[in-house]
Amino acid sequence: MKKYLLFLTVVLLSCLNIHAQTIVGIDLYHGDDPVTWSSVKSGGYGYAWHKSTQGTTYTDPDFVTDMVNGEAAGMYMGAYHFADPENNSAKAEADYFLSVAKSYIKTCEMPPVLDLEDPTSGPSLSSSFSSAALTAWVQEWFDTVQKMTGITPVLYTDGTYAKYLGSSLNKYPLWIATVSGSPSNPPPTADLGSWSTWTFNQYSWTLTVPGVPGSGNEDGDVFNGDSTAFKKFIGCIAGPPPPPPVCDTIYASLPYSTSFENTWAYDSCAGVAQRLPDFYWKTSIGGTTPDGDDYWHRDDYTGGDWSSPTSGAYTPATSKGTYSARFHNDPPPAGSIGNLDLYIDLSGAGTKTINFDYIHNELSPSPFAFDVELSTDGGKTFSAPLLSLPAQAAAWTAETLTTTATSAKSVIRFTVTDKGNTDVGIDNLSVVTGPTGISAITANSDFSIYPNPNNGSFTIATAGSINEKTEIEIYNALGQQVYSGDVYPGKTQINMNAKESGMYFYRIMSESGDRLISQGRLIVQH
Question: Does 27 participate in catalysis according to the annotation?
Answer without folding.
Answer: yes
